[in-house]
Write a structure and sequence with these properties.
Layout: E1 2-3, E2 8-9, H1 14-38, H2 41-66, H3 71-125, H4 128-143, H5 145-167
Antiparallel strand pairs: 1-2
Helix pairs in contact: 1-3, 2-3
Length: about 170
C-alpha cells in the first residue's frame, strides 16, 4: 500500500493485519484439511484391499463354475494371485504412506514458517510499550500459576454448568 497523497508507503492498520492473519489461518486450515484427506492411508488401503478382495472372489466363482474338475488348481492360482495382489497393495500402501509423510512434513514446515513470519510481523508492528507490558503480564502470570489455574478451572466449571442447563 502507498499513501497516495504523499507517495510514501504506509503500514497496514491493525484491522488489515487481523484480516491478513485470518485469511492466512483460513488458507492454512484448508491446506491442512486437503493434506489430511490425501494422507488418509488407512482408508485408501482398505478401499484397495476391498477391491482386491472383490476381484479375488469374482475370479474364484468364475473358475469354480467353468471347471469343477480343476478346482484345486484354480484355488491354488487364486491364492497365488491374491498373494501377489496383496503384496502389490502393500507396496502401493507403502508408497502412499511415504508420500503422505513427505506432504505432511512439507505442510508442517510451511506452517512453522508461516507462524514464525506472523510472529515476527506482529513483533515488528507492535509498539515497544505494548511489548513491555505484555512481557510484564506474562511474567506475573508465570509467577502466579496456581491462582490462574484455579480461576480458569472455576470458569470452565461455570461454563459447563451453563451449557448443561441449556441442553435441558
Amino acid at each position: 500500500m502507498t499513501n497516495q497523497q504523499h507517495g510514501t508507503p504506509s503500514s497496514p492498520s491493525s484491522e488489515e493485519l487481523r484480516d491478513q492473519i485470518e485469511n492466512t489461518r483460513n488458507e492454512l486450515g484448508r491446506t491442512v484439511e486437503a493434506l489430511a484427506a490425501k494422507a488418509d492411508v488407512k482408508a485408501q488401503a482398505q478401499a484397495k484391499a476391498a477391491d482386491v478382495k472383490a476381484q479375488a472372489k469374482e475370479a474364484a466363482v468364475e473358475a469354480k463354475t467353468q471347471a469343477k474338475a480343476t478346482a484345486a488348481d484354480v484355488t491354488a492360482q487364486a491364492k497365488a494371485t491374491a498373494t501377489d495382489v496383496t503384496a502389490q497393495a502393500k507396496a502401493a500402501a507403502a508408497g502412499v504412506t511415504a508420500q503422505a509423510k513427505e506432504v505432511t512434513a512439507q505442510a508442517r514446515e510451511t506452517a512453522v514458517s508461516m507462524k514464525d513470519q506472523a510472529a515476527q510481523l506482529v513483533k515488528d508492528k507492535t509498539p515497544e510499550p505494548v511489548l513491555d507490558e505484555a512481557g510484564r503480564i506474562a511474567n506475573t502470570a508465570r509467577a502466579n500459576r496456581t491462582p490462574l489455574i484455579a480461576i480458569g478451572a472455576a470458569v470452565a466449571v461455570v461454563l459447563l454448568v451453563r451449557r448443561g442447563r441449556r441442553r435441558k
